[in-house]
């Protein structure tokens, strides 16, 4: 549904994105992970057109993404910036007008479940309530693609679990979701695929299940006879191999291994 090819972006001559590639199919959740400054938020902003890209292609359903496709995307931005003086009712009117696929029942249930006061100005909400309200708008939009930047940040643990399920249920209706997050342990619970970004480029992408099946963690003294050393995870090695050795990794260990490995800094790859 959404395909990113060789996306590039620079600011004042400094490249922030140099080679971003990934695909999200219908019904899938892709987790975009990486350290601060790696380019996660910039990638989202280039997809939405907040920043004009300097190179590469963005496709929606095999058509190059243009202004006419914007109704197909709903966004929860990282900065949680809201319009001053607008209350919940104002936001409801705005979003329900913008999205022809707006789901009134979903919005009503979400607002009732989390006890929102729509007469209150959104700017007076706590950061957690802003996050929750923006997620509610996004899942009520009926958009084909959700772009969620840290969607569980600032939320209580119980609500985090509920939001993760809501995002999962949304994807299961045949929609696509891109989640940018530092919460790797959470992502393992509800995301399907992963794209690891560092230094402005995606250095690894795969389904989470396949990545965990094809990588192993080796302790000191274990010798790799067939496969590839990826990187260091504390005092152990992450390797890519099909042989039965070591133990299977957690998602967090795969991410750390790739971020510390030589693949992330090899400019010739």
UniProtKB/TrEMBL annotation:
Keywords: ATP-binding, Nucleotide-binding, Transport. PANTHER family: ABC TRANSPORTER ATP-BINDING COMPONENT, ABC TRANSPORTER ATP-BINDING PROTEIN ALBC-RELATED. Pfam families: ABC_tran. Residues 2-224 form the ABC transporter domain. One of its GO terms (molecular function) is ATP binding. It comes from Thermosipho ferrireducens. InterPro entries: AAA+_ATPase, ABC_transporter-like_ATP-bd, ABC_Transporter_VariousFunc, P-loop_NTPase. It comes from the Bacteria. This is ATP-binding cassette domain-containing protein.
